[in-house]
Design brief:
12-stranded antiparallel β-barrel; 3-stranded antiparallel beta sheet; 18 strands; 9% helix; disordered N terminus; Transporter; FApF
């Protein structure tokens, strides 16, 4: 009986240590992976080259039900959770540069993080805005006959978001970020098509990760995305997608802290054009694997697109 009590007490101490470490990591990590992970997360037909002079106004609402919290090279804490409610306002303008189809766009993400807990430990929620995303893109190759389009996209995220170094959860991240993305859109006949993308995200340092912490740095994060699309009619399409991310190991004052980005997510999307200039789309998604943060058990994204 005495030995059993000692074992239970030791297990409780280890659990408290891991929970404390996870809370420290959350406080140190700049920003939180929630809802649409970033502006670089594509939806079906994202790389369609529209005529110069076209503008798009888009609005998104994303909900995420997150469960288990896992720490890299550590345990998974089951009694964990997070509810995310995220909105995105996006504007896109298409034009030409040096005879190439090109454009610019801007994203502003805002929302709330609610009902957060790690290992049963409740956390205060957060509300505010993420860093604005400023972007430019250009198509290097467009072939209408073969239905092939190749695009490169650049993103810059200055530290404009809501950030409190005394808070465990934040939507902003107090650092500069930049991303380079390359994408391929390939059609096969009238109905079937593929969207493929790779991006690498680069991070500046956060010098206010939490009080007295020193300097937080992060290695490059890599991501691949793929959509298989089927257009049933000119107005209605459905798609199945996959997103995989890796890399992003973090250091505090030069020392690895056991946090990184590793996500494997399956996605389902349907889109419908109410008229030629107005589309609504719905995505449902689920994390097959998530390391270094919360696992999104269920996610939904509603998007409305207006062309003018």
């Amino acid at each position: 009986m005495t030995m059993m009590l000692f074992r239970h007490a030791g297990a409780r101490r280890r659990a408290r240590l891991w929970i404390g470490l996870c809370l420290t990591l959350l406080a140190a990590v700049a920003g939180l992976r929630a809802g649409p992970a970033s502006a670089q997360e594509i939806m079906p037909y994202e790389f369609t080259p529209l005529p110069a002079g076209t503008n798009l106004a888009l609005g998104y609402y994303a909900y995420g039900h997150n469960t288990d919290y896992s720490i890299a090279r550590g345990p998974t804490l089951r009694n964990s959770g997070l509810e995310t409610h995220i909105g995105i306002a996006r504007f896109v303008h298409y034009g030409e540069v040096a005879g190439l189809r090109a454009g610019v766009q801007a994203f502003q993400t805002f929302g709330s993080l609610q009902d957060a807990r790690i290992g049963g430990q409740r956390l205060d929620g957060a509300f505010g805005a993420q860093n604005i995303a400023l972007s430019a893109f250009v198509w290097l190759y467009i072939n209408e006959a073969s239905q092939t389009n190749v695009i490169v996209v650049g993103f810059l995220n200055p530290p404009t978001g809501t950030y409190d170094r005394f808070a465990v959860l934040n939507l902003g991240d107090n650092r500069m970020r930049g991303t380079a993305q390359i994408g391929l859109q390939q059609g096969f006949g009238e109905h079937f098509g593929l969207d493929l993308a790779y991006d690498a995200q680069f991070y500046g340092d956060n010098d206010r990760a939490f009080p007295g912490s020193g300097l937080l740095s992060q290695a490059t994060t890599h991501r691949i995305q793929a959509w298989a699309n089927w257009r049933w009619t000119p107005s209605f399409s459905t798609s199945v997608g996959y997103t995989g991310s890796w890399g992003g190991e973090q250091r505090l004052n030069g020392v690895l802290i056991g946090a990184r980005t590793e996500i494997q997510r399956i996605r389902f999307h349907s889109g419908y054009f109410i008229d030629p200039t107005l589309q609504v789309g719905l995505e449902l998604n689920h994390d097959l694997r998530a390391v270094g943060g919360f696992k999104q058990e269920f996610g939904a994204i509603l998007r409305v697109l207006k062309a003018f």
